[in-house]
TrEMBL record:
Gene from which this protein is expressed: LOC106767652
Transmembrane segments: none
Protein's recorded name: Probable N-acetyltransferase HLS1
Organism encoding this protein: Vigna radiata var. radiata (Mung bean)
PROSITE patterns: GNAT
Domain named N-acetyltransferase: residues: 17-192
Cross-referenced InterPro entries: Acyl_CoA_acyltransferase (IPR016181), GNAT_dom (IPR000182), Plant_NAT (IPR052810)
Amino acid sequence: MRGEELAFEVGGSMVVVTVREFDPSKDTEGVEAVERICEVGPSGKLSLFTDLHGDPICRVRNSPTFLMLVAEIGQETVGMIRGCIKIVTCGKKLHRHRKNTSEPASKQVPVYTKLAYILGLRVSPNHRRMGIGFKLVQRLEEWFRENGAEYAYMATEKDNVASVKLFTDKCGYSKFRTPSILVNPVFAHSLTPSSNVTIIQLPPNDAEFLYRTKFATTEFFPRDVDSVLNNHLTLGTFLAVPRGSYSPDTWPGSPRFLADPPPSWGLLSVWNCKDVFTLQVMGASRVKKAIAKTTRLLDRAFPWLRLPSIPNFFRPFGFHFLYGLGGEGPRAQKMVRALCAFAHNLAKDSGCQVVATEVSGQEPLRCAIPHWKMLSCEEDLWCIKRLGEDYSDGAVGDWTKSPPGFSIFVDPREF
């Protein structure tokens, strides 16, 4: 993508801003400097700093197609934006052509579309209100259209007024979904899953079959889910079933499992964000740090009490992301609780401080996911914009105007 120059008048003089594709050989240091400024902010308030481990495109690198743009004035990086494109389920339709008489007459099948995602928009505080953010979004949308994307969406905190106004007022996006980011600390002690639940790690091919059979019509389900499950950052897919129904030694494979499933079961996959980037809470007072440290000391001194302690968020920490949560049956919530306890212990053994997930605000299994309210975002905001006129896999109407479903599939490659 060729660079584009923009001229702005600042303080009576003209300033030229160049927007071009990110060049890792010369832009990494400048991008990381802007990340630090934007995350911490000049006020010194409590905020979250992201350490990208020297790889500014790490959060989109595993996506099928991605691009990063930078904005610079002279030799100074003043802004950047990242984007990626994938094919996802945007709806479902009834398929009335049966291959054999054993299939239902009206089977629901997914309708896919090519979707673009915007993330990591940053503009240096000293260069805001110059239209740089708007131009970065415009240039990225041009690339989306050139690559056949039919929709673009972005995620932001609901109370991030500046970001919401930029996208909804200036860029033509509309408010779309309000999922919840649920975050739970990893304690110094292990958790004990229910003894009435057996947890089985599935081979990737079994996990793919189960997801495609049971979750393919879930909104935002990626058509290349096999790439996600086989990615080296996926630590595994885990199935919870009632004790005595199946075990790792008697696992028959997903096709036979679905032909005769137990009354209830739960499923989730674990993505290792720790090896991609780390987080750190900045700007905390000495009092807050002392209180957090005290909870950890008490937990170590009296481990049998199993006190909930606050991990050390004030130095870089890693986390695991849980995706593909689902289940069926009257005891599905119990199965998910057992899986979350298992995932907590997996994170503990990996040296992580946090386990996180993102689910629809209407997710039926949400109440089974342990989380601390003070660490979580109860209502995130996704905004969407239609870039094209037709779906790539059959029309079901304008996705931007569709009502939310009970569940969404959050792709861990872009969390």
